[in-house]
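job 3f2a | input accepted
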Amino acid sequence: MQETRRAVLDALSAGPVSGPELAEELDVSRAAVWKHIETLREEGFGVESHGDGYVLDSVPEFGAGGVEYGLSAPFEIEYHDSIGSTNDRARELAVAGESGVAVLADEQTGARGRLDREWASPSGGIWLSLVCRPDVPPAQAPIYTLAAAAATADALDGIGVDAEIKWPNDVLVGGRKLVGILTEMAGEADRVAWIVVGIGINANVDGDAVPETATTIREQVGDTDRAVLTRSLLERFDDLTGSPEDVLPAWRKATSTLGRRVRIETTDGDVVGEAIDVEFPGTLVVATDEGEERVSAGDCEHLRPARS
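job 3f2a | predicted structure (308 res):
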């Protein structure tokens, strides 16, 4: 949100304020104040005009304005009612040099997951891709994937959804997938140019609109305020990526993988054993019959319930 417009919105939130007062406080013309207020109305904010000034009467349920209102994380929101893929759009922005942008959509029509698998993205979900430009080497990029999973699990916990992370980044409820995360990266040998973190949440979506192996927030706890949930996720992600040493403890707290017998399908063959730890920047440590193995990427299957 444009800085002056955000200042206008903050002033309206504090109570009735007149156009001349706003113009003087922000050092802009009254005409500029009026344009900002009209733009806020176009974005879905209910701005009423009374005898003692303008009053903020309501905020959008979703969209750019609804998420940015009260957001403390440094992301600009680019919202689409419908888009082919938020990751595709975020990649375009990253290549163009943008950073700190969150591409958000109500619906995706051409989304794909890992290994180019189809990802259902009906209206009512939270389809989000973050454009990041961290000063890290490519080998450390996986920590952003784990940060996204931990941030999402924490945000879901805040609305009463008991979600667990399956290594590295699937967020499940009762073994069914609620959230998918897909990270893309470009860079040189020693430095990341950009990272795009795609997060897809089956939010206010009917259960029959997603695969049988998946679930939705609506199925679990009923409909949620998507703007509030998105803000919570963005703020937690910003906190974790700002303090990378906090990512693994947060991930461990939310995972259901550690302590379980797992099978990891890798390009070099299957790794089977007990998952005993995760190491920076996201390597899974598996105790096999031949000793400990460290796996940095692969498809993880849980073979038995977690130990009590």
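job 3f2a | The longest strand covers residues 176-187.
job 3f2a | closed
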